[in-house]
Amino acid sequence: MMKKISIFFLALILMFSIAGCGAESDPQTSGQADRVESETDTEPTDTTGADETELTYDADTEVVTNDKEPADEAGVFDLEQGTVLLNSGYEMPILGIGCFRLSQEEAENSVYWALRDGYRLIDTARIYGNEVGVGRGIQKAIDEGFVTREEIFVTTKMWTDDYDEGAAAIDASLDRLGLDYIDLMILHHSQPENDVEAYQAMEQAVADGKLRSIGLSNYYEPEDFDRLVNATTIVPALIQNETHPYHQSMGMKVHIAQYGTVMESWFPLGGRGNTQTLFNDNTISSIAEAHGKTSAQVILRWHLQAGNIAIPGSSNEAHIQENFEIFDFELSEEEMQRMTDIDKDQRFAGY
Ligand SMILES: NC(=O)c1ccc[n+]([C@@H]2O[C@H](COP(=O)([O-])OP(=O)(O)OC[C@H]3O[C@@H](n4cnc5c(N)ncnc54)[C@H](OP(=O)(O)O)[C@@H]3O)[C@@H](O)[C@H]2O)c1
Question: Which of 135, 184, 207, 302 has the fewest CB within 10 Å, making it most exposed?
């Protein structure tokens, strides 16, 4: 029953959930340009352009060559395979290792341990300063025969300072990672003054074979997402936003599902310094006890069943292994509802 969750279904469920919980929105401060934005859970809105272009699918390259409508299966989570089909036509693992706040050496180790333990998704960013370490960890795992390049999915992000020089930023990330293509590159933050130009540089890099899929991070308003989509050609494959049991991002998930765009959760466990708040939540810890799992495992399993790609960060070998052991149990519908009910529309980060 849990084998496949269609985003369409998810959208319906989420719309009912939103109607039921009536969450208020909180003002959020963007650390990027001192903008004060309000995070709203809104009903999906009609999006200009959504019906205007046709999607074509190239079976040879597995690349969807455009445009505003998702492929029928886009956004479908396969919990047995641990993958989701992106609207770009590429399959992406739904559980990965996050590398925020890891040194070069820690990133190398974490990526190596993760690939050895079965992970196939890695998330880093230019601003983390560890792309070289990530590349070394990948190479070590390949050299030792745990994986091939084709089996893994590498994500990095373009930092806001680089938006005016997007093409050079992409080449620099490729160089630091030691790769000849990147599976997914995303813009790190919304920055209306020049994020369209940066996104267009990523579109050109898709055409050049340097990037396979492209997406966004830290776009919290449907209108902001639409601004970018309406000015560009390739629909974002995903949005990476702060998403966890206390900030379930329901409104944005419903909105982006119209495009077959999926949600990827940063701070999936609440982020460094906040994890105990979630781990000790009564609902989460009681569900964990019932399954003989840890709170971290229950939260990560919830992400996947809720249709969120999760990239827990860790420099701890045992935690990395623990976080991957979530494919041998399932949360019931009742448990998923209890998790839905603890949403507080509360972010832990201020950006
Ligand atoms: N796009 C963005 O703006 C943005 C922002 C933040 C993060 N991210 C991405 O999202 C990833 C995830 O976010 P995050 O790493 O900041 O936060 P997180 O994954 O929510 O939490 C990381 C914290 O959880 C701990 N942890 C991990 N597994 C654990 C386990 N099984 N038991 C107990 N503690 C555990 C880690 O400590 P140990 O090291 O001791 O395991 C670390 O302190 C990042 O690594 C990064 O790739 C993106």
Answer: 207
